[in-house]
């Protein structure tokens, strides 16, 4: 199992190094679709994506950026018509201040920053702030657990979401790279071309991007903390 994962990283890295993935160079713009956000690469407090709107699908009333919302609607429709499964939204765009509130609450209930850090993302480290992520569940459910990955719905999502531009962002076995536990319910919009390349590479977004071009990776850090923001 572990060997298989290591092997898939090596294979993907080899593909990246010999330039066979050149066609899939990521854009560097925070308003593009490949902006990397994680515990090390944070989003500035003042960043609010342009074009947020409510998604018109079954589930909790949640927002995404226009491009992601449109893709999500097509994806949910395909889940029903092609996959025979029904999905529902649970949590989409999350502002910096919402993240702060959640984090502060967790800090006070657990009594320490260390304990809170293990349970919730520090403000600015959640890609939900990009408006490109959605937590989803089976229709009629709002529970976000690893079990979703074993359900008919979860399996269909994993195998098909790239066709609509999404990736399952936090895969099993890559916790040390992504900084997050396995989250089969969290999908991230990156566009069809990138999503397909990432899905086929079998590696997380971090590995995929760092293999493509290191200075792109560094540029993202710089951009996230200093420039570009209005
Ligand atoms: Zn999420």
Unreliable segments (pLDDT under 50, ≥5 consecutive)? 1-25, 213-230
Based on Cα principal axes, name the global outline: globular
CATH architecture: 2-Layer Sandwich
What small molecules does the structure contain? zinc ion
Helix content: 40-55%
Give a short account of the largest sheet: 4 strands, antiparallel
Rg measurement, Å: 17 Å
How do the strands of the widest beta sheet line up side by side?
3-4-6-5
Number of strands: 6
What is the string of helix and strand elements?
Answer: HEEHEHHEHEHEHHH
Under CATH at level 1, the class stands as: Alpha Beta
Describe this structure in words.
- This protein is α+β, with helices and mostly antiparallel strands.
- It has a single domain, classed as Muramoyl-pentapeptide Carboxypeptidase, domain 2, CATH 3.30.1380.10.
- It has nine helices and six strands; from the N terminus they run H-E-E-H-E-H-H-E-H-E-H-E-H-H-H.
- It has helices at residues 2-17, 66-81, 96-110, 113-119, 152-160, 175-178, 192-201, 205-212, 214-225, and strands at residues 52-54, 63-65, 87-91, 133-138, 166-170, 183-189.
- The strands form two sheets. Strands 3-4-6-5 form a four-stranded antiparallel beta sheet. Strands 1-2 form a two-stranded antiparallel sheet.
- Strand 1 (52-54) and strand 2 (63-65) form a beta hairpin.
- Helix 1 (2-17) packs parallel to helix 8, helix 3 packs across helix 4 and helix 8 (205-212) crosses helix 9 (214-225).
- The longest helix is centred in the first third of the chain and has 16 residues, at 2-17.
- The N and C termini lie far apart (46 Å).
- The model is unreliable at 1-25 and 213-230 (pLDDT under 50).
- Bound molecules: zinc ion (ZN).
- Residues 128, 133, 135, 186 line the site of zinc ion.
């Amino acid at each position: 199992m572990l060997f298989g994962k290591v092997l898939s990283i090596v294979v993907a890295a080899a593909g990246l190094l010999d330039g066979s993935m050149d066609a899939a160079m990521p854009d560097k713009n925070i308003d593009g679709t490949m902006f990397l956000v994680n515990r090390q690469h944070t989003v500035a407090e003042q960043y609010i994506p342009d074009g947020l709107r409510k998604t018109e699908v079954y589930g909790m009333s949640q927002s995404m950026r226009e491009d992601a919302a449109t893709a999500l609607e097509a994806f949910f429709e395909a889940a029903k018509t092609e996959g025979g499964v029904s999905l529902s939204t649970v949590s989409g765009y999350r502002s910096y201040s919402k993240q702060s509130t959640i984090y502060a609450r967790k800090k006070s209930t657990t009594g320490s920053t260390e304990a809170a850090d293990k349970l919730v993302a520090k403000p600015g480290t959640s890609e939900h702030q990009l408006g490109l992520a959605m937590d989803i569940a089976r229709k009629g459910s709002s529970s976000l657990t690893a079990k979703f990955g074993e359900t008919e719905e979860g399996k269909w999502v994993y195998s098909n979401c790239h066709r609509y531009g999404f990736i399952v962002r936090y895969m099993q076995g890559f916790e040390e790279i992504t900084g997050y536990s396995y989250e089969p319910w969290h999908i991230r919009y990156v566009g069809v071309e990138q999503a397909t390349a990432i899905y086929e590479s079998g590696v997380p977004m971090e590995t995929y991007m760092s293999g493509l071009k290191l200075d792109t990776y560094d540029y993202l850090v710089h951009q996230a903390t200093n420039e570009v923001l209005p």
